[in-house]
# Entry
Amino acid sequence: MPKGQRKYNGAQKVEIIKQLHNEKLSFYEASSKYGIPRRTLQDWERIYLEEGEEALLVERRGRACAASGTQKGRKPKLDKQVEEDLIAENQRLRMEIDYLKKLNALVLEEERQDRKHK
# Structure
């Protein structure tokens, strides 16, 4: 391994990112505290925020897979049709939630009116 480069396991990466958040450190402060390049810390945080803690535990180095076009350890991207279906379902569910909220508000208002008249 070239001078100055260390290999961190997933648990170490997660712990460092959690400390970065808990102590509210800037990337520059964390870089000097842990001796890790700022860019590396930014990459780890991006992965942590986008894909979750488990994503830092997976080995990501290596060439992309020719068949799926993804790197080792990364989840393959969804094909367009599946992604569009999920977006449509998400929109439908949001509309359903909005409808149920309005219905609940109407029922509560009606009950309040009934109690008023009694």
User: Anything to note?
Assistant: The chain has two domains: 1-62, 76-118.
